[in-house]
Write the structure tokens for this entry.
Amino acid sequence: MRIAGPSSSARPADPGRAGEAGVKRRDVRAATRPFTRKARRFPRQARAERLAPYVLVAPAVLIIAALRLWPLALGVNFSFTGDGELNGTPVGPANYLELAGDPLFHISLRNVGLLVLLLPLAVAIPGLLATFIYLRVPGHRVYRSVYFFPAVLSPVIVGAIFNLMLGYDGPLNSLLGAIGAGPVDWLGDPGIAMFTVVGVHVWATFGMALVVFLAGFSTLDSSLLDAARVDGASLRQTIWHVIIPSLTRTIQFVFVTTMIGMLTSMFGLLFVMTSGGPEGATYLPEYYIWHQQGQMNRPALASAASTVLFVVMLVVGLLQITLLRRAGRQD
Amino acid sequence: MKQRALWSALVVAALAVAGCGSATRTESPSGGAQQKLVVWDWKSGEPVAAAYIEQAKADFAKRHPGVTVEFVAQPFDQYYTLLGTAIQAGKGPDVMLFNGGGQIRDRADALLPLDQYVAEDRSRLAGWDAFSKDGKVYAAPVTLQGHPIYYNKALYEQAGLDPAAPPKTWSEFVSGCAAIKKATGATCFALGNKEGFGIQFFLSGLGSGVLTPQEYDDWIAGKRDWTSPGVKRIFELWKDAGDKGLNNDGANSTAMFSDVFRVFQTGKAAHIIGLMSDIGHWNDFKEFLPPDKIGVMQAPVVTDGAAPSLPYDGGIGYAVAKWTKAPYLAADLVRSLTSTDALTAFYGKAGAIASDTTIDVSQAGPAVATIASEIKTGKPALHVALSSKTLDVMGRLSQQLLSGSTTVDKALEQLAASDRKG
């Protein structure tokens, strides 16, 4: 028994005895038992010990509850109220029914689907370019910094630059004209505009994914590559059978981050480049929410759209977590 | 062990409490001698509006020396978003700037009716209708906003047309445009419809040449017949103008304010349905086009019996929030912001057509003189009478009409449905 006496604190004894911690813990437990008959003297301590974990997690729980869950609940609750004259009155699912019947909201959800479909492309581009840099194509040092450069530009600046470039009388169409192709209304044709904006988004953000890929490459076992080379594998075979299998985790990570980036940070580009147009073809839920709240003065309808977006993101996020977990188990 | 856990728990709890404590706002006791009014707008930060704001502040300070006025200039892009949040919370600025029409009518619930405060100004200022709803006035107009058709006199001269006698009918207008195209390569209209605003300007700018005065007044009064031949004609003109190449290329990707005015200024188009105030007006064009080369014409007559008039409304105006603690003071600030001296300064520096009809504008060139002379006979613009929801739908439909993915009849059907819902 290292306990000095009944009035001793429960603090472990001098640090020099750290090695005996395991023994000591048992000692303490054993030592507390005799005290229980004098429990009246220590109820405060016993309760404190019981409460301590709750108090310790309280800040985190409070922050989550007060700043995340409570506003979320308020927002969901708000989405069941009316706008304008009906402000504050419960209207049941009317806002959701309106969303279900609003072609603009349909377009915005369809565009989310389109983004998911374009995701592999958005991941393949930085992946392929990183592969080339890793395989030391001539000038790879220059490319590394050049590729990363757009990632430091704000979407507004990128949007403004491409507005000029892609204007109907802009340089790109002049170039097309010079080689004999007709001008393309990059941002004015509803069938093309969304692809244009996604293309610009990929151009502006792939640098970050490229860096992640390069970091992944640094963990790649170069002896595998050497072996492949000795065996006479072609570039395509090397990429397909050696590089991709070794980089599974990295690719998954890039998939998740690119997905999040596409769904959450396209607003700036849309705002500057298309304003959701032409014909509403480039609406995304975020833009729709902003439009209803700020331009149409329909905050409750915007809340309903936010709730739908939240559910969509929740499903996408859970799917991704499941996929990642399954992949993690394979390793 | 126990006490250590207790201590750390206490420390954490104390920190959390301290953190919360410092985050709460320390409210200064209200009702002190110093009163303060907060104004939200998107104008007061602009250099051209500085003299106007100074003048208004001075006028107000003379009458209420103890009251401080704080102007908060918000970015226009976010203005109504921020305002919506303030309205939702039921607190915010005492006085705020609004665009006339749908923007203020949609938010009239949050505003104080000003009728009793501004009675004296009613005859001096024009443009009250755009700030009224159900017979009550919610803001005092600062500028007038309208859609005159500007034309480039230099292009008219090059094409051998008389710049002093712009076309009076639609057929003259179209043949004049053909001559200009042939002589200079410039298109007829500079049109920017990227945001779907182009149709609004087109509807209001040309509408008085298509609808009869009776139809026009009915439209403004809310009796809108979307199937009438006149209304249909306007949208057919819109589609025809696109199909026959009267517009600049890529109208659906040309931004209304920045790009399209550049097209007009640089002589790539002969006409533009522009604005009277804020931006895109005679004073803005002067960078490339001298004032004597800019003309203002009335809407060409399309159908017999139409009587072209200048379409205009109150442009921007200051309103008072319902939640203000000092309604009288706030309303008086609005009066200072619309005093003749202040508005003269605004007109002089920004080139805006101010709401005050007593300001002398004879020095500013022929375009302004024409506009000023038409204000008496002018009527509210057609598109301002529509709800923002309908305008939004109309913007997208207008893009579809230009690209050919819908027909005039289908578009009018949707517009009628949206207009009925209000």
Summary: Chain A has two domains: 1-41, 94-330. Chain A touches chain B through 46 residues (CB under 8 Å). Residues 1-32 of chain A have pLDDT under 50 and may be disordered. The domain at 94-330 of chain A is CATH 1.10.3720.10 (MetI-like fold).
